[in-house]
Amino acid sequence: MKNWENRATEIAYLLNPAFCGRIIYHAIKTYQQESKRPMPFPLVYLILPMVLHRKTRERIKSITQMQIWIQRNPEMLIGFADRAQSMVPITNEAVEFLMQSGIVTLTNNAELELAQLFKALSTTKYTNDEIKECISKSSSVAKWFAKAGTVETIYVSWGVRP
């Protein structure tokens, strides 16, 4: 990962830790609401490659089970593993931002959960339609994860290895 001053301006603006952290925050929040447990840490690495990729994001529907959705949209797996791998440093920065800000904590079982005393982030404040869609789809992805089974099952379904 390049230092901030060495990154292309567009990349620095689009993939900044606060924006990516907001997307991840909403996924963690929804996962906790759906499953009544913290989100397994490895799942965080799949959120941004799904939500920030426009073609994938536009097709995500949480009402369809994840595995069925993948069977109906196999072309969405093309290049996904490479996208996921390239997003690891950006995801790490976003999670680090959330943890340093006291928004998210890491449990002893390597799970991410919202901090107890943190006031919820708005889904609509300081947003445009595309940001709202990213936040909404991150919640849809979290619903998939909450119902899809183990971390291993989810990773295999998307064709990636932890």
Number of strands: 3
- Give the distance, in angstroms, between the N- and C-terminal Cα atoms: 19 Å
**Would you identify the regions where 5 or more consecutive residues have pLDDT less than 50?**
none
Separate helix tally = 8
Helix content range of the residues, please? 55-70%
Topology:
Layout: H1 9-14, H2 17-35, E1 39-40, H3 44-51, H4 54-59, H5 66-72, H6 80-100, E2 104-106, E3 111-114, H7 129-148, H8 151-157
Antiparallel strand pairs: 1-3, 2-3
Helix pairs in contact: 2-3, 2-6, 2-7, 3-6, 3-7
Describe this structure in words.
This protein is mostly helical and 162 residues long. The two termini are 19 Å apart. The chain is 58% helix and 6% strand. The model has no long low-confidence stretch (mean pLDDT 89). The chain is globular and about 40 Å long. It has helices spanning 9-14, 17-35, 44-51, 54-59, 66-72, 80-100, 129-148, 151-157; strands at residues 39-40, 104-106, 111-114.
Concise overview:
The protein is mainly alpha-helical and 162 residues long. Helix content is 58%, strand content 6%.
Key attributes of the depicted protein:
single chain; 162 residues; mainly alpha; 3-stranded antiparallel sheet; 58% helix; 6% strand
